[in-house]
Amino acid sequence: METVNKNIKLNTVVINVFLTIVFITLFLLGDYGIAGDSNSYITMGLTREPGYSILLWVMRSLFGEENYFIPLALFQNAFACISVIWVAHYFGKRLFNSGLGYWVCALILSMPYLLTPIFSRTHLVMANKIMAEGITVPLYYFFMLYIVKMIFEEDKFGKNAAIAWGISLLLVLTRGQLILSSIIWLLTVVVRLLLEKTYIKIYVPVLSVVLLLVCNALVTRTYHGINSGVFAATASSKPMILANVLYVSEPKDGDHIQDPKLRELFERVYRELDKQGMLYRYAEGNIIDKALHHEDCHDTISFDYFEPVKNDIYYHSEHHEILMADGYPAYLIKQDEIAAALTGELLKNNWPNYLKNYV
Length: 359
Known about the structure:
- The protein is mainly alpha-helical.
- The protein contains 13 helices and no strands.
- α1 packs antiparallel against α4 and α10 runs parallel beside α13.
- The longest helix has 31 residues.
- It is globular.
- The two termini are 42 Å apart.
- The relative contact order is 0.09.
């Protein structure tokens, strides 16, 4: 038994050293700084949640406008390395109780950091760039760690639930789409309470999620009020979601749309995407090739097809300049409303296709 324990400890040290070397290597690959949508975080505008933009502001305050890229990359790589080591160690021990299990978990958790430098057309190192994923991926790993702890560690259920709730709030404040984490948290707590037959306490997690949503709304709206002069929720994320829905759409998905402008918007955008081969059915090859096809199409669908066609239909112009009478924030808020409406209409029919391709 003592020999087995020594082997496990030695294996743990080897994996930790290996992972540390991996992330040091990624950091040393360089190419720090600006990525595709970095400026939207740097400018702290209405189009981004406050979490990551505040981190960038702290880094700029500490290291200066011209010198914070490398410290930020160092922080993000260190955070990623710690999250992978910590979470892989727990999962390997809890789920496999073996050194091999630790290795499997470590490699799986490292994949988001290794796939893009190796397989992506851009070859970017995610943790070296100004990208919200630099902190949302490690945060999500820690979130799932405490979700698993909520399930298995009976004596620390309350503590683990509180930590997972806090991480979920950070995730939502950094990336609005990660509101899914609050649903995962709620379902985990409710199922746990039902299994324990403590039905009367179910109101507690429900109120906790309501509190999370209220905190997120207050912090986000106050942040935008200070920086953009508009006490409003984050705008312009919904066209990005719509781009994913349009990518997996079919012609029949628009048949039931009653609003004539929304229907025209879908039909015109769909025709262009079909003509340009920018739909999921044109993706060929293995899973990596298909992922690259989606990567190439996503932003183009939103910026080059949805936005100009939407402007032509709703404003009779493809140009931004004449749309600013009420200010750019008002334009973004309206754009979000249109994108959300079309997303909802399309998902009524194509949600099976959406789940098949993205889940």
